[in-house]
Write a structure and sequence with these properties.
This protein is mainly α and 174 residues long. The chain contains six helices and no strands. Helix 3 crosses helix 4. The longest helix has 14 residues. 37% of the residues are buried.
Length: 174
């Protein structure tokens, strides 16, 4: 596996949406899909283009606008992870009020509340100092932690590919 270079993972660097979908795409065995992708900021020659195409085809990502893909915040990352989990057959209907105990609960975007509640209730997301930090940039280290926590719950999933050695790192270029 590799990170941003042969021997550097850059855990404290902000995670991009490209990193994120590449991690997920690798987790499912790098499926190829026939889908018209219209993100103006995703070049067909990009190492992550097929990953974005796959994620968009399943509704895991929708872009920041109709034609832009962009960077990722904590609540965006959790929402994409929740959509991915649903696609993989996870039970994403867990209820509970634990999320309301976080000091910044009211700052969650409406679109992310169900996903964030699922992540808190399954302990995939644990927050920091009683805060969820929904608008904070998600670092590569935080993202692989979320993915690891999800993957550790997935070992009993029949339809989960589990390519753990291949999907935890997304190189910046090939």
């Amino acid at each position: 596996t590799s990170g941003v270079s042969k021997d550097v993972f850059a855990p404290n660097r902000d995670c991009t949406r490209a990193d994120f979908v590449t991690f997920l795409w690798r987790a499912t065995g790098k499926p190829v899909v026939n889908y018209a992708m219209n993100f103006s900021d995703v070049k067909e020659s990009s190492y992550y283009a097929e990953a974005v195409r796959w994620a968009a085809s399943l509704g895991i990502v929708t872009g920041l606008s109709k034609n832009t893909f962009g960077a990722v915040t904590c609540e965006q990352a959790v929402t994409m992870l929740w959509r991915f989990a649903k696609q993989q057959g996870f039970d994403t209907t867990q209820g509970g009020m634990a999320i309301r105990e976080y000091a910044d609960y009211d700052s969650l975007s409406a679109y992310a509340r169900e996903a964030m509640a699922w992540a808190v209730n399954t302990e995939i997301l644990k927050g920091s100092n009683n805060r969820l930090l929904p608008d904070a940039a998600c670092t590569r280290a935080q993202l692989v932690t979320l993915l690891y926590r999800l993957e550790s719950q997935a070992t009993d999933m029949v339809n989960y590919s589990g390519y753990v050695t291949d999907w935890m790192y997304a190189p910046e270029s090939k």
